[in-house]
Amino acid sequence: MVEVEDSAAQQNSETYFDTTNEIVLSINSSLSIYSSVRDYVDCSKAQLENELRINYGDSTLTLLSCANSKYYANKTVVLYLHVGNMSEGFDQSLIYFVHHRNRDLQFVFLLKGAHAKENLKYIDNVMQKLKLL
What we know:
By secondary structure, this protein is of the alpha+beta class. It contains two helices and seven strands, in the order E-E-E-H-E-E-E-E-H.
């Protein structure tokens, strides 16, 4: 992955592009006001998809799945979304929300649905190597 400059990026954010697999990864970090990731991403919430549509400004957003990650399951929730408001053919997003040591981390992967099966395996391989210190 190659780090890219993103003028829209927030402080405490880094963006990378994998030129081989055509995947974008954005890593964001901030101090948390919550005690758990489930305080702000609750998969059992009936209105979660509607809230995501509003928060991301995408009326076509579809929540494909919401689950605990198999890596750091008690600290991580994973959202898999179909999105419609991105360019360059990116139409899916896999977001790992991680709460660790009073910080909220987001690993946001953007991918193209046409290559989702292969890319999801690649992303899983990346995330299984995550070490929270």
